[in-house]
Amino acid sequence: MQPWLVLLDEAVNQARAVVLAERYSVPLDATVLATTLGQTGSSVDTQVVRRAAQAGLSKRAARAAWQKAISKVAGWLTRGSPKQRAVKAKLLPLELGPLYLAWGVLVSELGYDGEFSEPSTGLPQKLLYLSAQQRCQAPKKTEALPVLDEVGTWPAASPVDPQHVTLVTQLSLERLNMLENQCEVWPHALAAAVYVPLLKELVVSLDSPALNGIRLAQALEMVGNFHARLQSEGACNLQLALFAERCSYRGLAGLYPFNAMRNKALQMVQTEVVFQLDADFVVSNEFGEEVGSPAGWAALRQQLALAPAVIVPAFEPNATQLQRRQKSKQRDEGGDRSLARQLRLGKSIAFKAAKAGKGWVAAKYAARELQQSAIDKFEAGHNCTQYSRWLGAQDYYEVPYAEGYEPYTVMLRQHVPWFDERFRGYGYDKMIGYLVMWHWGIRFAVHPRAFVVHVPHAVAKTLALTKQLKQHSKLRQMFLDATEDLGQQQYVPVTSFPDQCPLQHGGQQ
Questions:
Q1: Kind plus residue range of the DSSP H or E element containing 452
Q2: Could you report the per-residue pLDDT of 3-43, keeping only the tens digit for each?
Q3: Which of 163, 167, 134, 324 lies closest to 238 in space, CA to CA?
């Protein structure tokens, strides 16, 4: 750890201890706290100085901004009643110190005066993500959320180190094979929530005739056997849970509850860092090896202190190129021209990319055999990642947010906002999550080496059903309403567990 990080940790911990002390009659002197924090002013880290230089600032200007910022922070910490000070201290994570330093440079870059606004939440407006785990609310009486019952759990075979990273995902029963793909390339903890809709106690599957109509007991046996096989084969350290929803009609069973399942998966995590990824992607081997090494892990944790969301670029095999290669093979060898053959070819490319590394991906990207994920269907989803820049990147680089951005991220668990469970069916579910992150002050930095690749598969019927049942227009309206509420600092994600979130609207407990 850098010297200034050590000093900041000590200073912040000291501030927490004082503010949390029961002797509230003894006031915390803001000047003393600012002086304690300011000890780092003469040892500004070279990375921060470099950032200041890139913004056209001198070292003196950067340090002056830092001093001003920590004075504001100290003042904010020490204002208010004893109870208010205690709440503020509880919301301070241990790594908030590095954030102060980043804030100081940001103040200079933006020419802002460094004032912390005081919204009703009691937190600086652009630091709301620090209380992300404590912020959710119950639905209105007119809003129905998915009711998911945990019907089976299968723990990880090996103890999970809390000081590490968990790949966290969610999927339907039909997609267990995708989870197996992830296990093949990810050697660390993996937490997966599996969804099964029931109608009259029988499984409903729009995508698999073999699963449609089986009993819940059969689904439990199927998942249990799957987990046992993967663990016996020495694959990833897999933690599984099966969640059943008893649906009132068949159409509801086809509207996958994406965000409710994301929350269930997040609640399973035992580590301080999470890697949020959809089940139909595989992770580059290089990234798994990096976070498995002490040096790689330390570098990632330091980056998470500077930019709370680390973006992992997502690629996919080019569908047009796949079709051309398939036709060429069919001419040369004869055989199957079916979709199944094309999907097998796409899977082989995805796995080769994951195992070969960034250099191979860059070459295939230049040859247009790999491309930005979902670029043909929803370019905005990953456009802000700046793929051309990533190809030559040697270090992390920050990127802006634009509406529609929904990348895959590595974050401290405590900084991940809950997902709004009103969003079910296809569309806007992930978008609302990342819009919340941006409004709450999350900064995005792209990892220079890590990447994920989409494994092609048949299109799930939930997409067509969402439009058929006119759910898509409802999702769009909810997204627009949430966007407006965020602009007015009034939005809090709606979940099925509001009792676990002490901070509601207006920061009330």
A1: strand 452-454
A2: 334 444 444 444 444 433 333 333 444 444 444 444 433 33
A3: 167
